[in-house]
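stage 2 :: seqdesign
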């Protein structure tokens, strides 16, 4: 979690008003990813991002988050950052490990290629209950944390750019 003073510093930063942000949401496990999206959206709005500057995109699964994030940066040069939300629940095989690894590496590559933040808001859990616990349950909401991570990265970019 973020400490209270760093959150207050974000509130004072008015530069979020004009930031253009996309939230890409995996349709797989939508009962979880919709909760992540709602928390992410509400957090961005709370910190001053204008609703008209936030675009939601839905993709079939977590693997497609990579292609969608690259596509969005290619087609919108004014896009400031992306939050990728997904939920990968372990099954009977190791497919979850392969998907998680591929998505992680892919999103890192997109972020480095475009020099813009791509936030990894993908839950990787052993079961559905753990996913609910991390999407508004006893362990908070990773959608909110993902939005805060993006805002902190945008703040960092603005700070470095002013030097």
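stage 2 :: out
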């Amino acid at each position: 979690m973020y400490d209270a003073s760093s959150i207050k510093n974000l509130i004072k930063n008015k530069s979020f008003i004009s930031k253009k942000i996309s939230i890409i949401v995996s349709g797989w496990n939508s009962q979880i990813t919709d909760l992540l999206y709602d928390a992410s959206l509400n957090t961005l709005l709370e910190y001053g991002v204008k609703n008209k500057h936030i675009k939601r995109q839905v993709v079939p699964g977590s693997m497609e988050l990579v292609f969608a994030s690259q596509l969005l940066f290619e087609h919108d040069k004014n896009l400031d950052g992306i939050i990728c939300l997904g939920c990968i629940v372990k099954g009977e095989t190791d497919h979850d490990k392969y998907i998680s690894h591929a998505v992680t590496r892919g999103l890192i590559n997109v972020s480095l290629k475009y020099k813009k933040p791509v936030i990894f808001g993908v839950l990787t859990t052993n079961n559905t209950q753990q996913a609910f616990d991390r999407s508004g349950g006893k362990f908070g909401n990773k959608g909110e944390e993902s939005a805060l991570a993006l805002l902190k990265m945008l703040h960092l970019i603005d700070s470095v750019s002013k030097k």
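stage 3 :: structure notes
- The CA atoms of residues 1 and 145 lie 7 Å apart.
- The mean pLDDT is 90.
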